[in-house]
Amino acid sequence: MRKTDFVNGEFYHVYNRGVDHRGVFGDSFDIDRFYQSMQEFNSVDPIGSIYENAFLLGRGTSKSPKLVNIVAYCLNPNHYHMILEQLVDGGISEFMRRLGGGYTKYFNNKVKRSGVLFQGLFRSKHINSNEYLLHLSAYVNLNDRVHTADDSLGRITSKLSKSSFGEYMGSGGEGFCAKDIILKQFNDVRDYEKFSLGSLQDIIARKKDLKELAGLLLEDSA
Length: 222
Known about the structure:
It is a single chain. This protein has a single domain (11-221), classed as Alpha-Beta Plaits. The chain has helices at 28-40, 91-111, 130-141, 143-148, 154-157, 165-169, 180-183, 189-221; strands spanning 11-17, 68-76, 79-86, 123-127, 162-163. Helices cover 44% and strands 14% of the residues. By secondary structure, the chain is of the alpha+beta class. The N and C termini lie far apart (38 Å). It is built from eight helices and five strands. The protein is globular and about 45 Å long. A five-stranded antiparallel β-sheet has the order 4-1-3-2-5.
């Protein structure tokens, strides 16, 4: 049973990874398919099959009210992160059900496999302060760079990822993120960029410190 109760108007960090840590995006077509699904499944009214529109990224979006505001996202080879604001009752759960189910069906059909693709129900955490929201937006927007700094995944992540950071910076097309929720709190885009890159360095440093601490603890217990 899910511990998080989703409330309209509140923000949540939503994330999941491939079952057994497997890759869920094998190439740029997979990334585009998931990205399109994020846009088209975000509709109160059902949209039906997305199959015939799988890679028509320029197709018009539904006029139906949205289930959620997508504030930021990052798609990595074996996992994803999103910041969502629920707009209607049950909005996050319905959006994630459509997204996970639709993409799993597409991916399994493509690679001729069966069964679950993601590791159980998506994980979620309530964002309980504005400061947390701002720092988390930097973490999610730059999550691919966090992993690029990690040699165990970096070479793969740098080649196969997609995030909303370009959309925030004005270099990634119009997109669909409700980025003004974050950007209106800064003087301009460059101010947010400086804030985000500073947060990234802190995150990378903390990851390194935690790894070194884990190594010391293992040595002490040997």
